[in-house]
Specification:
Blueprint: E1 8-9, E2 13-14, E3 17-18, E4 21-22, E5 34-37, E6 43-44, E7 57-60, E8 66-67, E9 80-82, E10 89-90, E11 112-113, E12 126-129, E13 135-136, E14 148-151, E15 158-161, E16 164-167, E17 172-173
Parallel strand pairs: 1-5, 4-6, 5-7, 6-8, 7-9, 8-10, 10-11, 11-13, 12-14
Antiparallel strand pairs: 2-3, 15-16, 16-17
Amino acid sequence: MYSYQDPLIFPSTINGYPVTDIGEGAFFLWSGTSVTIPDSVVNIQEGAFSNCRSLTNVIIGNGVINIGDYAFEDCYALTSVTIGNSVANIQEGAFSNCRDITRLVIPDMVINIGEYAFYACNSLTNVMIPKNVTSIGSEAFLCANLANITVASDNLEYSSADGVLFNRLYGLLCFGLFWGKKAA
């Protein structure tokens, strides 16, 4: 295993070549506390930072479009995540078991939130779903203390009432997305 600086701040270029991807499992089990991903990166691949158990702070640049499957899974100490404004896809399990995340801002450009994306992020109490989200996978927000989901009023796919998430098209309560809210 390599030893990387902490905080880890990626350069935009290496030897004149742009840094555009963070590879699959590239920093698996890294013991650092802070990561800053530059705007040049467009893709964070599967498991890139999974099991980084000391990681507390992540800043994802505005060039990132895709946060891959389980990219930050099991980063138990992660409390602060800044997701760049260009992110369109938060894939399956991207932040699952990041149990100390207390605040989450999902950017307006996000279209897809995959299954288990924020599963067991048990310190989350509130989530705001922006206007462009058209797909939320099952158990995406299965979080023990999540008490309120709010949906942007101009979202055409989802709505919320009293903090509960509904699919507008079918008029159905979206079961299995979170367990913090109790049915009336």
